[in-house]
Amino acid sequence: MSMIIVKGSFPIKADQQPVALDLVQALASASRKEPGCLSYEVYVQADEPRVIMVWQQWSSLDALEVHFGSEHVDAFLDAIPDLIDGEVHSARYDVSSVDGEPVLEEVQDIAPLVLADNITLH
C-alpha cells in the first residue's frame, strides 16, 4: 500500500471568494469519484478567509497523475487564474509510514508538475 498527500492553498481576490469556493468544491466532488482518491477536502483558512486550502490523499502517484490529466482539473485550471490574488502554494508528500507502519517501500523523487503560469504542483 502507498499514499501520496497533496496540500495546496489559493489566495483569492476578496470579492471572488464565493465563486472560487464553488469552483474548488466542484473539483473536489469530481475528484472524489476518481479511482485512487482516498480523500479530497476543501477548507477556508481560519485566519485569512480569502485563502482556500485543499488537502488530498491518493493511493498512488499513478492515480494522482491520472487526476492531473482529467477534464475537471483542466476546467479548474482554465477558470482559477482570473480569481487568484497572490502566490499559489502546493506541496506533495510521498508517505512512507503512518504511525510507524511503512506504506511505501521506496520514495521516488519526482519533478514538480507545472499546470499553469502560477500553479506548480510538487
Q: What characteristic shape results from the CA principal axes?
A: globular
Gap between N and C termini, in Å?
21 Å
Strand composition percent: 35-45%
Low-confidence stretches: 104-111
Mean pLDDT, all residues: 85
Radius of gyration: 15 Å
Supply the helix-strand structural class.
alpha+beta
For the sheet with most strands, the description reads:
4 strands, antiparallel
State the strand order across the main sheet: 2-3-1-4
Q: In DSSP terms, counting alpha (H) and pi (I) runs of 4 or more, how many helices?
A: 3
Can you offer a commentary on this structure?
The chain has 122 residues and is of the alpha+beta class. Helices cover 27% and strands 35% of the residues. The protein is built from three helices and eight strands. It has helices spanning 17-32, 61-68, 71-79, and strands at 3-11, 37-44, 51-58, 89-95, 97-98, 101-102, 113-116, 119-121. Strands 2-3-1-4 form a four-stranded antiparallel β-sheet. The chain has a two-stranded antiparallel ribbon with strand order 5-6. Strands 7-8 form a two-stranded antiparallel sheet. A hairpin with a 2-residue loop joins strand 5 (97-98) and strand 6. Helix 1 packs antiparallel against helix 3 (71-79). The chain is globular, with a radius of gyration of 15 Å. The model is unreliable at 104-111 (pLDDT under 50).
